[in-house]
From TrEMBL, chain A:
Residue intervals passing through the bilayer: 83-102
Protein source organism: Pseudomonas veronii 1YdBTEX2
Keywords noted in UniProt: Membrane, Transmembrane, Transmembrane helix
Lineage, opening ranks: Bacteria, Pseudomonadati, Pseudomonadota, Gammaproteobacteria, Pseudomonadales
Protein name, entry field: Transmembrane anti-sigma factor
From TrEMBL, chain B:
Family according to the record: Belongs to the sigma-70 factor family. ECF subfamily.
Gene source species: Pseudomonas veronii
One Gene Ontology molecular-function label: sigma factor activity
Keyword Transcription regulation assigned: yes
Domain annotation RNA polymerase sigma factor 70 region 4 type: ranges: 102-151
InterPro entries: PhyR_sigma2, RNA_pol_sigma-70-like, RNA_pol_sigma-70_dom, RNA_pol_sigma70_r4_t2, RNA_pol_sigma_r2, RNA_pol_sigma_r3/r4-like, WH-like_DNA-bd_sf
Record's protein name: Sigma-70 family RNA polymerase sigma factor
Ranges for domain PhyR sigma2: 10-61
Keywords: Sigma factor, Transcription, Transcription regulation
Signal peptide feature range: none
Gene Ontology BP term (one): DNA-templated transcription initiation
Length: 245, 168
């Protein structure tokens, strides 16, 4: 409810038709009795009216097709797609760089062959006799007990006694893929066969059963029970067909 | 396809008029409208305050204008600094004594122009204007009162001191 005489704010609210109906009527009665205030209000109304008329022309501008919302929406989408594409290109460059680097590394290094570490261990310990053994066995049974201390649910050690080989020593090794163990078998002529066990590594490189030979050594490899295995023996050893596990 | 697009399309003439009254230049007005629409479309999903779409768009446009205006002024100052002179001289046209309401309107400052357009021409409520300007309703009313007085005086050709005629 407005109070009389009306404040200037009330007068503006009246001009702007923002007074409640009852207030508007009260004010109109007041204005009828006060011509000088009415003249002021009328001038404001007139200004507003003239302004509305003067600015109405600006509503009739010829349409600007660039302002169509659908078009703008499309443009925004294209922009974000372009940003996305830029990001993708950057990502690709990084990946290619990384991949290229990786491939270059592979090109300059000998390719990773399956269980190459088993063959390397054989050369070091069975052929060159480097480093004393961590464990000397008194037979297959004790050897198995020793191995089971380090590897849960590892496969049983093969029995090579028919070929004249018995497990003699065990060595623990550290490899890129994790802790490994090599059990060495020996026959009466001093020839060696190794049993090698280690985890598949962080990338879980399990192997299909296979074999390969290199530098006079034969490696048979396979995976099972969460480990990778290899049997390494000198090439041409007549016992090889006996290695059935 | 988009319900918003249809509503926006209907309001475009009003946005262009408002932009024109602020920038006084048709092409920069349309640039202003375009960036307003872009912003509205991208922000539509996040718009939490519901209310008059028109008031919301006006407020986006007004902010864009103020930002652009500030940038231009900074640029003008920089230009002045490097060239050693003020390139923004009032034109003859600008110093002509206001003869009509429209000319008087053009001489008001941008906030006064916006206020009068919102209230007198577009018929927004004081509350909506208060939300756009982020000031109390009382402040809106006293600023509106000053804008009306200024328009009145300019229309009557009473205020002719150069300091008030020169526009930014």
């Amino acid at each position: 409810m407005i109070s009389l005489p009306p404040s200037e704010r009330d007068l503006h609210a009246y001009v702007d038709q923002q007074l409640p109906e009852s207030d508007r009527r009260v004010l109109e009665t007041y204005l009828a009795a006060h011509p000088e205030v009415a003249a002021q209000v009328h001038a404001w109304q007139q200004d507003a009216h003239v302004l509305r008329a003067a600015l109405s022309g600006a509503l009739q501008q010829p349409a600007n097709p660039a302002l169509d919302p659908a078009l703008i929406r499309q443009r925004i989408k294209q922009q974000s797609r372009r940003h996305f594409a830029t990001a993708a290109v950057l990502l690709m460059a990084v990946s290619l760089g990384g991949l290229g680097g990786w491939q270059a590394r592979e090109a300059t290094q000998p390719p990773m062959l399956p269980m190459a570490d088993a063959m390397q261990a054989y050369r070091l310990f069975a052929q060159d006799g480097v480093l004393p053994a961590d464990y000397h066995a008194q037979g297959n049974a004790t050897m198995q007990t020793w191995l089971d201390r380090y590897f849960n649910q590892a496969q049983r050690l093969p029995d090579l006694s028919q070929a004249g080989f018995t497990a003699v020593s065990g060595r623990l090794l550290s490899t890129e893929q994790g802790a490994a163990a090599m059990v060495l078998y020996e026959d009466r002529q001093g020839r060696h066969i190794s049993f090698y066990i280690r985890p598949p590594g962080p990338e879980n490189n399990f192997l299909p059963r296979g074999s390969r030979s290199a530098d006079g050594l034969l490696a048979e490899y396979w995976s099972g029970g969460g480990y990778n295995y290899a049997m390494v023996s000198p090439q041409g050893l007549p016992t090889t067909p006996l290695l059935q596990f | 396809m988009h319900e918003l697009d249809e509503q926006l399309r209907e309001l475009i003439p009003r946005l262009r008029r408002f932009a024109l009254s602020l920038s006084r230049n048709a092409s920069s007005a349309d640039d202003l409208v375009q960036s307003t629409l872009e912003r509205a479309i991208t922000r539509w999903a996040d718009k939490t305050v519901d209310g008059d779409l028109r008031a919301w768009l006006f407020s986006i446009l007004y902010r864009q204008f103020l930002d652009a205006h500030r940038r231009t002024r900074r640029y003008a100052r920089m230009l002045e600094f490097f060239t050693g002179r003020d390139d923004v001289q009032p034109s003859v046209e600008r110093t002509v004594i206001a003869q009509s309401t429209l000319q008087a309107f053009d001489r008001l400052n941008s906030e006064q122009r916006a206020l009068l357009l919102w209230v007198s021409v577009e018929g927004l409520s004081y509350k909506e204007v208060a939300q756009i300007l982020d000031v109390p309703i009382g402040t809106v009313m006293s600023r509106l009162s000053r804008a009306r007085q200024a328009l009145r005086q300019l229309s009557d050709g009473e205020m002719t001191s150069p300091s008030l005629r020169i526009l930014k």
